[in-house]
Amino acid sequence: MRTIAASWVNGHLEVLDQTKLPLAETTVELTRLSHYTKAIRVMQVRGAPLIGIVAAFGVAQESLLTKDMPVQFFQRRISKAISALAATRPTAVNLFWALEKQREVLKEYGDKPSTCARRMLEAAKAIQSAQVAAERKMAEASLRLLPRKCTALTICNSGPLATGGIGTALGSIIHAYKHGKVTDVIVPETRPRMQGRLTAWELEKAGVPFTIIADGAVGLALKAKNIGAAFVGADRIAANGDTANKIGTYAMAVLCREHRVPFIVVAPESTIDRACPTGSGIVIEERDGDEIRIVGGKRQMPARWNAWNPAFDVTPNSLISFIVTEKGARRGGRLR
To answer: Which residues are catalytic?
Structure first.
């Protein structure tokens, strides 16, 4: 069964509310700009590629709502919409890449609001279609990196819920399972938002065997299980190959190096930020400490306790075996 994370239906975007999964499958209708910014900020939608897709549709939505307004008003509203969406989350470069695509449309067609609105909707749909096509290529390239049948390890969530297509890292794992290269998947919880539950939900939908573990059990799993490779996604890849992904990825890469397990990053070319020379230039989002203190809507510790809640960490290219994009696999984590 294919998971559809976001669909343009009857003049608006419909998305699965990922904050309710896996216990409830709830659809949210995004019909105005505030709906789009909220959905990204509170993580009703998440995953770098999907954030970019949703943001592109958010700009298109605003253009459709204002296309009958005077030109200057239209241009001002669209510029403000792009700025509002850009302020939702700082780390995922796909967000800014998609918004820049819409900014280019505004520059070319902004003096003709109706035409601009149509072009912006076309651009958003094109971004989503290109992502879907890219993921198929990434899955094929990743498959060639697995020399034997094995257990796969991942972290965070990088399947259809994160991308709008088949997924990046998790899409590659599921593709490898269908081709007999992967037997099962080890899934860390991924604190603090428990995104491992989303990966588990997707694997169950795809019929792939999996085991959920605590994040702290990754080292033992690498020692005790038949893990042949770790596949992870990315929210931003610096020009030198340093990669930002969900918190815990860096530790996993260090442990993979110790246990001689290939560590493979799977992400589209749009995730590469060539204007960012190294990982030290990547802004790490820090979220509300209550995402650690409160689990499942229930407070687990006093509000007065300090909590540090970085959403991402950066893995240096020296720990990365391959970076896989729709252009193929690059060895050693370095980009050329």
So the answer is: 235
Q: What are phi and psi of 124, to 5 degrees?
A: -65, -45
Give residue 91's Cα distance to chain centre.
Answer: 11
Give residue 194's pLDDT. Answer: 87
Distance of CA 315 to the CA centre of its chain: 16
Quote the CA–CA distance of 208 and 184 in Å, as a whole number: 6
Contact 45, 39 (CB under 8 A): yes
Give the mean pLDDT of the chain. Answer: 95
Residue 150's SS3 state is strand
Phi, psi dihedrals of residue 177, rounded to the nearest 5°: -60, -45
- Collect all residues with Cβ–Cβ distance below 8 Å to 84 and sequence separation of at least 6: 33, 37
Instruction: Give yes or no for a contact between 330 and 323, defined as CB atoms under 8 angstroms apart.
Output: yes
Torsion angles phi and psi, residue 93, rounded to 5 = -70, -25
Residue showing tokens 């505004």:
106
Q: pLDDT digits over 106-136, tens only? A: 999 999 999 999 999 999 999 999 999 999 9
Check if the beta carbon of residue 171 is closer than 8 Å to that of residue 227.
no
Per DSSP, the residues of 295-319 read: ETTEE-S-TTS----BSEEEE-GGG
Residue 238: pLDDT band by 50, 70, 90 thresholds? Answer: very high
Tokens 């949210």, residue located: 28
CA-to-CA dists, residue 227 to 181, 195, 196, 261, 269, angstroms: 12, 21, 18, 7, 27
| Residues 148, 226 contacting (CB under 8 angstroms) | no
Cα separation of 14 and 29, whole Å? 5
Spacing of C-alpha 302 from chain mean position: 31
- Segment 184-207, tens digit of pLDDT: 999 999 987 889 999 999 999 999
